[in-house]
Amino acid sequence: MANRSRSRPGSPSSARSSSQPEGIDTGSSPPSDSTTGSSSPIFEVLVIFGLVFIIQGLTAVVGAMAGLFILAPPLAENPWTIVTSVYAHDGIWHLLSNSLALLVFGWPVARATTRGRFHAFILVTGSIAGISQVLLTDFAATAPFLAGTPVAVLGASGAVFALLGYLLTSNRLSAGFASIIDVPQWVTILVFVGLALTVTLVTAAPGVALIAHFTGFLLGLLAGRTRILHVNSESSASRSVV
């Protein structure tokens, strides 16, 4: 489920059901477009993945794929890729691995939130993860005291890692532990950063956008800690992702 990064040594180029899950209280019935407990956004994202993958293949024939789907510096050159790169993939195995990870990590999150919030979470975390990868590697390549190579990225792994992070900190066990152990906020943040670094390094591999993975996972941990995806903030303490 890795974001693919492409080395760029020179100038920038391409790189309800009727029953609700236990522990989730949806409160009063909201409008249909904000109904919780639906797994449909998972399948909607998968359909987008598939359609974008087909379009990638078609546009690659005329040499337009990179400009449409690959996030690369300078970001202002093709700003739409901030969005499109989240749903694009570097080959069929990249697509399949991210799709499987989305199903595993995204299913319980989708069941605990609304369709709109789920899609927004995928898009925002995926975009921020990709931007962080591109900007930081570009900075490392231009800074005289650092050694680095600019990269271009595409893939939903930043968003997938954000879903994983959200699951880890929004479940009942984590919520109960946090209510017992009272620590300063800065300690919590340090723990989250350390955990994100560990998970990122464990999943490291050639061509993997590690900064995007780290950023996505950290965003997910922080979002899960605040249960930002839960619909009613006043009852969020009683509704955690299973």
Automatic annotation (TrEMBL):
Pfam families: Rhomboid (PF01694). One of its GO terms (cellular component) is membrane. Residues 8-36 have a biased composition (Low complexity). It is found in: Membrane. Residues 78-226 form the Peptidase S54 rhomboid domain. GO terms for molecular function: serine-type endopeptidase activity. SUPFAM superfamilies: Rhomboid-like. The keyword Lipoprotein does not apply. It is a multi-pass membrane protein. Its main location: membrane. The chain crosses the membrane at residues 45-71, 91-109, 121-141, 147-168, 175-197, 203-223. InterPro entries: Peptidase_S54_rhomboid_dom, Rhomboid-like_sf. Residues 1-36 are annotated as: Disordered. Keywords: Membrane, Transmembrane, Transmembrane helix. PANTHER family: PEPTIDASE S54 RHOMBOID DOMAIN-CONTAINING PROTEIN, RHOMBOID-RELATED PROTEIN. This is Rhomboid family protein. The lineage of its organism: Archaea, Methanobacteriati, Methanobacteriota, Stenosarchaea group, Halobacteria.
